[in-house]
Write a structure and sequence with these properties.
The chain is mainly β. It has a domain at 27-172: TolB, C-terminal domain (Neuraminidase), CATH 2.120.10.30. Helices cover 0% and strands 38% of the residues. The protein contains no helices and 16 strands. It has a four-stranded antiparallel beta sheet with strand order 1-2-3-4, with no helix packed on it. A four-stranded antiparallel beta sheet has the order 5-6-7-8, with no helix packed on it. Strand 1 (27-32) and strand 2 (38-42) form a beta hairpin. It starts with 26 loop residues before the first strand and ends in a 12-residue tail after the last strand.
Amino acid sequence: MGASTATTAAGQSNGASGTALNYLQYPGDVDVDSNGDIYVTDSINNRALFWASGASSGTIIAGSGTAGSLNNQLNLPYGFARDLSSGTRYIADYSNHRIMSYLPGSTNGTVIAGGNGSGTSSTQLMNPIGLCFDSSSNSLLIANYGAHNIVRWVLGATSWTLVAGITGSAGSTSTQLNSPMDVTLDSMGNIYVADSSNHRIQFFLAGQSNGTTIAGITAVGGFGIIAV
């Protein structure tokens, strides 16, 4: 804590990319467990790795390393989430327009959301990129990048319900999003969205569709301390 220099915990400290298990190539998301072990989506390598604390290489826990749409393959995986009670892992399979579920110890996944092609209907996803598991409702919140919305998919359901944004309509009003990248929620059920192309973080009270900008300036990018 308080250090001003970083230590490389996974991948190469010189920034080199590669396909060997001690390399990463455009890691998309990371999760750390109570032991300090790392789970990382290795996007361009089309896999997810488990990297034990202090280890010099990772172990494949999802994907084959080759882009594809079989249940043991991924195509640009990004978002990662875990159910801490069961150990089940969830991966946003961006270019397959689906969310995959993996039981502990299995590298064969199950499609639990989307998988019906790219689209904006309630049974489809469009480039899902960010994920958050909500244990209180046994559901996933999904940043549906290409459809400009945040959706909730209850596990076992066949369709989503809209949480934030206007499906298929990019914009910068308080009810719109533009290419949302990630989503999380707090203990009260309030939603926070990284609204990437609007250069802002949006806050949605639980059950509300009107957001409030809590970081950044809408549609203004930059390097100043108040711009995102």
